[in-house]
Specification:
This protein is of the alpha+beta class and 258 residues long. It contains 2 helices and 13 strands, in the order αββββββαβββββββ.
């Protein structure tokens, strides 16, 4: 082999290695984006959680308030009980894996909610049914990728894009979220429809210790096309990791919960 050929091979080898190194970095970044979302999700949920929440629906000419108690266990089980106002008191929403049920005490009916209802407003708020009961999983139903970095309220954040997997039945056509790099808190989330038009923006503020964890205590959901409309959700208290049996999240228990 001539010196010229040897020189060519020596030049080609680093380029060859650089290509695979670059491909490895891209693969690691894609995995890390999901890991960041997972850490933020697990921090906000815990193994289980029991929460007391105040919700204020704000419109240009009126507002109303609700009080809700919630229970959750991992990604598969959640239950929300409306405590006030009196008109909706006792209404329950139950999620068991991919099934969602709604107990309405005024008519004594337990209604199984079809996937088509997940995009509808939850109790007249600017949150969707899916936002509250989380039928779709932000971990399993989406592909995740880094878009870069962003600063939210002085905190350095990852900017991460979530695109639905081809066969996922989800509400949103795209989600972009900002997650704090240090404490893994979701601080800003944009929700887009199937045409990639912005529908809602969620602002997470009032960061404080809740249930022994540093988390936003206030979330505002603001629709893009309805000026003056927003829904404010405030966590009054959260208790994490209290043992809850799967049977607690059952249609048999939905009429007894208090």
């Amino acid at each position: 082999m001539t010196d010229k050929n040897n020189k060519y091979l020596h030049m080609k080898k680093p380029i060859f290695l650089l290509f695979f190194h670059f491909a490895f970095i891209l693969s690691a970044i894609a995995q890390d984006a999901k890991d960041v979302v997972k850490k933020a999700d697990e921090k906000a949920r815990g193994k289980t959680s029991i929460s007391n929440i105040s919700i204020k629906i704000i419109r240009p000419t009126w507002s109303r308030e609700m009080s809700v108690k919630g229970w959750s266990k991992g990604n598969d089980f959640s239950l929300a009980l409306v405590l006030a106002p009196a008109k909706e008191k006792g209404v329950v929403f139950l999620k068991r894996k991919k099934e969602v049920w709604n107990w309405i005490p005024s008519i004594e009916r337990n209604i199984k909610m079809p996937p088509s209802m997940m995009s509808q407003s939850w109790m007249g708020t600017d949150f969707t049914n899916d936002d509250l009961v989380k039928e779709a999983s932000i971990l399993e139903d989406y592909d995740h990728s880094f878009l870069g970095n962003v600063t939210i309220d002085g905190r350095d954040c990852y900017k991460i894009q979530l695109i639905p997997k081809p066969k996922s039945a989800v509400v949103w056509g795209k989600i972009i979220m900002a997650i704090d790099k240090k404490d893994y808190m979701m601080l800003h989330v944009e929700y887009f429809d199937e045409d990639k038009a912005l529908v809602n923006t969620m602002y997470c503020t009032d960061i404080k210790m809740i249930g022994g964890r540093l988390l936003p205590g206030r979330m505002e959901m603001v629709p893009a096309s309805k000026k003056g409309n927003k829904t404010v959700l405030i966590y009054n208290s959260i208790v994490f990791d209290t043992p809850l049996e799967d049977s607690f999240f059952s249609t048999q228990n939905i009429t007894k919960i208090k």
